[in-house]
Amino acid sequence: MGYDLPRIEETLHRARPGRRLQFLEEVGSTQDRAFLLAEHGAPDGSVVLAERQTAGRGRLGRAWDAPAGAGAWFSVILRPHAVPPPEPTLLVAATVLAVAEGMEEATGLVPGIRWPNDLVVGDRKVAGILLETRDLAPEAPLFILGVGINTDRGTEAFPKELRDISTTIAAETGRSPDRTSLLCAVLEALDRWRTTLAAAGPPVVEEAFRARVAYLGHRVSLLAGEERLVGVLESASPVTGVFLRLDGGGWRAIRPEHAREVRPLPGDPGEEE
């Protein structure tokens, strides 16, 4: 089923009139198109939505598989009004919370957060976030927020290297989601969380983030810079970073800018079991 574009535009304008929606059947990257729109004055909260991306990208320079009809692929222009602007790690945290809440509201699926920007069901990734900037001038900061949500297709339809680590809403719930309802729910939740971040500051976002963190109490593999660490995940915060109890003894605190990704170790049941 295609998108109900008037309904999406209504959702955008209800929060703030003047926001733009650009829908494309196919594009290289919604991120690149959003940067182009921003350079031509598109206002805060404007959205680029594509049915298919041919050159989608994720964190750490990875490609993002985004075929037609299989997901919600979009980018949002963010022009924070606060001076100084929010820390990027907090914007990512607010966004991943918004995507999780929107997904839960629209589909009933309750994903966890895999540090720092993925949503997972069990050990499989269902959505990812990418935040990029090309201008952090205090007087006019600009961020482009990319979101990819896997909605439809069986796991066998993923590229071979992704089949064991990726999933979709349809695969987890047994039914295809209404992508319009999903997108609108995420955009509304994003407005709420941005307002919360601006009004209440980091503690509220940090608390909500911690409540959704996946793999707490489990042995994980963590990439810190170029170093791979293994231990029990004790905590994960967008403000203070990741805290590991290392295999072999000792503890390690890794700041957000150095903790690149957390992955569960196969077969680990977690301490609660």
Share of β-strand residues: 25-35%
Q: List how many beta strands DSSP finds.
A: 12
The biggest beta sheet reads: 7 strands, mixed
Q: Looking at CATH, which topology of the largest domain would you report?
A: BirA Bifunctional Protein, domain 2
What is the CATH level 1 assignment of the largest domain?
Alpha Beta
Question: Low-confidence spans: pLDDT under 50, at least 5 residues?
Answer: none
Number of helices, where a helix is a run of at least 4 consecutive DSSP H or I residues:
6
Spatial strand arrangement across the major sheet: 1-2-3-7-6-5-4
Q: Label the structural class.
A: alpha+beta
Q: What is the CATH superfamily of the largest domain? A: Bira Bifunctional Protein, Domain 2
Identify the CATH architecture of the largest domain: 2-Layer Sandwich
Radius of gyration using CA atoms only? 18 Å
Order of helices and strands: HEHEEHEEEEHHHEEEEE
* Nearest-integer average pLDDT: 88
End-to-end Cα distance, whole Å, is: 42 Å
So what's the overall shape?
globular
What is the total number of structural domains? Answer: 2
Classify the helix fraction into a percent range: 25-40%
Topology, pairings included?
Layout: H1 5-15, E1 21-27, H2 30-39, E2 47-53, E3 71-78, H3 88-107, E4 112-114, E5 118-121, E6 124-135, E7 142-150, H4 169-173, H5 179-200, H6 202-212, E8 219-224, E9 227-237, E10 241-246, E11 251-254, E12 259-264
Parallel strand pairs: 1-2
Antiparallel strand pairs: 2-3, 3-7, 4-5, 5-6, 6-7, 8-9, 8-12, 9-10, 10-11
Helix pairs in contact: 1-5, 3-5, 3-6, 5-6
